[in-house]
Design brief:
The protein is of the alpha/beta class and 240 residues long. It is 39% helix and 22% strand. A seven-stranded mixed β-sheet has the order 3-2-1-4-5-7-6. This is Class I SAM-dependent methyltransferase.
């Protein structure tokens, strides 16, 4: 089985693969009311960078979930090193091992597109409490893509579809979210002009050289610089 883009992120321990990195995450969290009573899920927590930041800076309860076993190992190692108490679960957003009405806020950063989006959104709605909020940062096409553009992106990322803003909003509304807002958005190139420098960590250089996985990261860079005017991201805030 060929390695995926997600395998490459896990192997090299890339902490902030989503646009804006931790800088954007901090901004989003500042807009929310987070108290000691808040229960927050980091959906697709990766190496645990975001979850660790939240736990250290907010009084809420934090849970992380990620499907990739290497990511879960890296997150556990981070939490142990930083002496942070975070519930961490290996599992899929498409079928989460949590009771219904478990969380006040669910944060998903560039993860949903790698899943069956309809199934994941249904699960997210299930585990959100009434009045809960989904904060979603996702790759978004700036316009309807031509067939070859779409094919190239899907092949690099191993996904089935690149959604436009309208399509993302429709997916969330169909899943039962009555209120969906776009709070921020840029193309790859326009984001570069914002000056929002990501606070990402360097990749793990202690792992053995793996040209195949390095190639996956290079393919990602190719997509960004080739299609940077027609692909970007949106921050969606969906509430129940």
């Amino acid at each position: 089985m060929k390695p995926t883009y997600q395998d490459a992120l896990a192997y090299f321990g890339v902490s902030g693969a989503h646009p804006g990195g931790l800088t954007l995450t901090k901004f989003l969290l500042e807009q929310e009311k987070i108290t000691e009573e808040t229960t927050l899920l980091d959906g697709g927590c990766g190496t645990g960078q975001t979850a660790a930041y939240i736990k250290k800076n907010y009084p809420c309860s934090v849970t992380g979930i990620d499907y990739h076993p290497t990511m879960v190992k890296r997150a556990n190692k981070r939490f142990e090193k930083e002496h942070i108490s975070i519930q961490l679960v290996q599992g899929s957003l498409e079928k989460m091992p949590f009771p219904s009405d478990s969380f006040d806020i669910i944060l998903v950063e560039s993860v949903l597109i790698f899943t069956n989006c309809k199934n994941s959104l249904a699960e997210i709605k299930r585990v959100l409490k009434p009045g809960g909020v989904l904060l979603l940062v996702e790759m978004t096409a700036e316009r309807a893509l031509y067939a070859m553009e779409h094919q190239n992106m899907c092949e690099v990322y191993g996904i089935e579809k690149v959604y436009t803003e309208k399509e993302w909003i429709n997916l969330m509304k169909e899943a039962g979210f009555p209120k969906v807002e776009v709070t921020l958005g840029h193309s790859v190139f326009s984001h570069m002009m914002t000056g929002m420098e990501p606070e990402d960590e360097a990749i793990d250089t202690s792992v053995p050289v793996n040209m195949q996985l390095e190639g996956k990261l290079m393919d990602h860079s190719y997509i960004l610089y080739t299609y940077g005017n027609i692909i970007g991201y949106r921050v969606y805030r969906a509430s129940l």
